[in-house]
Design brief:
This protein is mainly alpha-helical. The protein is built from 26 helices and six strands. It is about 70% helix and about 5% strand.
Length: about 625
């Protein structure tokens, strides 16, 4: 029982750290409406900067606490610089493209940390005067962790005083409610946004710096921290600071209880609660989103599924576009012939084709359906693992295994989609992320079936497709047929109903369209084709691992769709091809490929706020308008 009590105290200490990360994200989103993927990077950089400062200032009281406060201030200034130089230029772009810009910042900051501090984990010294432990029911509990327990409530109190007793706090609360009205009253919104971004970044960095004696600085902290922060913000309620602390407390304590329970045996069955710690926060988030989508202390929003103005209708392909598509298909078919001089071209083309199918299936629900998914890799992973299990465990041939993979992905999309399509906006996106992380956790820990963290090996195509050129033609045929089918669906009554539900759900319902049912069906269709992409990936690589289903792959899919353009049907094809080619080329060119890729993505976002394909179409339309009348004919 004493050990269980200590675990509960550990939960209180962890809650303070979660709160410091999440409250900054909540402030930034509440005022700027940016879903800031780079917020986890501020936590990571804060820990690295604190380590760097304490190495130079010394491990004494002045050096340690100076490093903690200095790290928060430095990263706060970094956040202000990022907002001023980068994000201020993309505020006029659609919100999803702002998200893409913050993802580019994540890539650049990770490689900046790699260049400055190297790839090794860095653990700082213990806090002066807090190196010992106190006794709690006969168990030792670190004094520093006891200090952390009080940090969260103290910061919560200071923020409450700032928001209720200062002019800046009044402006922040007003901007959270109606930022357009704040601007109309003469408040300089640009500097308000910069200040809030700096404050949020400083709070995240403070959370990281305070982990100096407890957690080593490493390059993977950014995605881990942003995942935890999103969960806390959504569970507590978007924009609710007390809600963020309550959510952090609940999640940290549930994790602590799971650690305390360990392995429990009942009726001859053993269950390891400690394994739930990998996914328990996402289980909590999924439950809260299903029960109370606006969060524990949040307020329901009146916005409908898509708050953006209706988009221009999709057009069928013009004759020149059909000719260009046919020519592109013929050129792709010639890749294996060129592969005799460039063998790697065939391998890279297979990867690009799989990425095209992955991105097109995501676009099917994002563009026409207006449903933004942060967890699309769940169906990609289900397809990959379904194909591998059918091949290795059931002994089915590759062709049957691919069919089984699509059916498994269909089942997953059918189940998850039933819950997801009842939400909208960021709540829908976060629920899809929760479901994806639940699937990842099962794959990561089910060693007997999935191979656990080691994955599965020896997943090779059947003999007739064993050669790379033969597998390339199979992939080309399946991807081309899948993309064609999805495009045909969009110009069928099903596609028109789906887009009607995106643009005006209430009007669509009034005309007799069951919007939820159509969007659920779209979710299933997208899941099936994404599962097929996963199966093709498994047989192309010969091995799969939990990385196949990770958050990073879902983010890659988002980047592909946004890079090409959400508003165009060619967008996911162009975006996935460009992203895959850039990633492959840059990885082989430099060790700091993430930073270079981030710079390229950021430039593309600024140059083409509608995506590459959308920007190209806009330029073509402008040229046609300015062309002489005879030339237009």
């Amino acid at each position: 029982m004493s050990g269980f009590a200590v675990q509960l105290l550990n939960g209180l200490a962890g809650a303070s750290t979660l709160f410091l990360i999440a409250v900054g994200l909540s402030l930034i989103f509440g005022v700027t409406r940016i879903v800031n993927f780079a917020h986890g990077s501020m936590y990571m950089v804060g820990l690295y900067v604190a380590y760097w400062l304490v190495e130079r200032l010394g491990g004494g009281a002045l050096g340690f606490w100076g490093a903690v406060i200095g790290a928060a201030l430095i990263v706060g200034l970094l956040g202000a610089l990022i907002e001023f130089v980068v994000l201020r230029r993309v505020y006029a772009a659609p919100e999803l493209f702002q998200l893409l810009a913050t993802f580019a910042i994540v890539l650049m900051l990770r490689d900046a940390a790699l260049w400055l501090w190297g790839p090794d984990d860095l653990l700082g010294p213990k806090a002066p005067g807090m190196k010992g432990a106190i006794q709690v029911l006969g168990r030792s509990f670190p004094e520093y962790d006891l200090f952390l327990i009080f940090v969260g409530p103290a910061v919560l109190l200071l923020l409450w005083l700032m928001l209720t007793r200062t002019r800046l706090g009044v402006l922040i609360r007003a901007a959270t409610q109606d930022r357009e009205m704040v601007g109309a009253l003469g408040v300089n919104q640009a500097w308000l946004f910069t200040g809030v971004f700096a404050l949020g970044s400083a709070l995240a960095a403070l959370g990281g710096a305070l982990q100096l004696p407890r957690e080593p600085a490493n390059l993977g902290l950014d995605l881990t921290a942003i995942g935890d922060a999103f969960v806390v913000v959504v569970v507590g309620g978007m924009g609710s600071i007390p809600g963020a602390y309550l959510a952090a407390l609940i999640i940290a304590e549930i994790k602590a209880i799971c650690y305390g329970l360990g392995t429990v045996t009942m009726l001859g069955f053993s269950f390891s609660f400690s394994k739930l710690t990998l996914v328990v926060e996402f289980l909590v988030m999924a439950a809260v989103l299903i029960w109370r989508p606006w969060g524990l202390l949040g307020k329901p929003q009146g916005a409908v599924r898509n708050a953006a103005p209706p988009e221009a209708p999709y057009r069928t392909m013009s004759r020149p576009a059909v000719i260009a598509a046919a020519a592109g298909f013929v050129l792709l078919a010639l890749v294996p012939v060129l592969g005799q001089q460039f063998p790697y071209a065939t391998v890279l083309s297979i990867d690009i084709l799989i990425a095209v199918l992955f991105a097109t299936s995501l676009h099917f629900i994002m563009g026409p359906g207006g449903m933004h998914s942060f967890g699309h890799a769940a169906y990609f992973g289900l397809g990959a693992y379904g194909a591998a299990a059918a091949l290795k465990a059931l002994g089915l041939p590759m062709e049957a295994a691919q069919l089984g993979a699509a059916l498994l992905a269909l089942a997953g999309a059918w189940l998850f989609g039933w819950f997801a399509v009842r939400l909208s906006g960021v709540y829908l996106a976060m629920l899809t992320l929760a479901f994806a992380q639940i699937v990842w956790s099962i794959v990561f820990q089910w060693d007997e079936v999935t191979g656990g963290s080691n994955g599965l090996l020896g997943i090779w195509p059947s003999e007739r497709f064993a050669a790379k050129p033969a597998y390339f033609y199979l992939t080309l045929a399946l991807v081309a047929a899948s993309v064609f089918l999805m495009r045909r669906m969009l110009f069928s009554p099903f596609g028109y109903a789906m887009r009607a539900g995106r643009d005006s759900p209430m009007r669509a319902e009034a005309t007799g369209i069951d919007v939820v049912r159509f969007h659920w069906a779209a979710f299933i269709v997208a899941g099936v084709f994404c599962g097929l992409a996963g199966a093709l990936f498994a047989f192309a690589k010969g091995t799969i691992s939990p990385e196949t289903i990770s958050v990073g792959r879902s983010i890659d899919g988002l980047v592909m769709v946004l890079l090409g353009g959400v508003q165009t049907l060619a967008g996911p094809i162009v975006g996935s091809a460009v992203f895959s080619w850039l990633q492959d080329s840059i990885i082989r060119a430099t060790d700091y490929w993430r930073a270079l890729l981030g710079i390229v993505i950021l430039l593309l976002v600024m140059l083409f706020p509608q995506g590459i394909a959308g920007g190209a179409l806009a330029i073509a339309a402008r040229l046609r308008r300015h062309a002489p009348a005879g030339a237009r004919r």
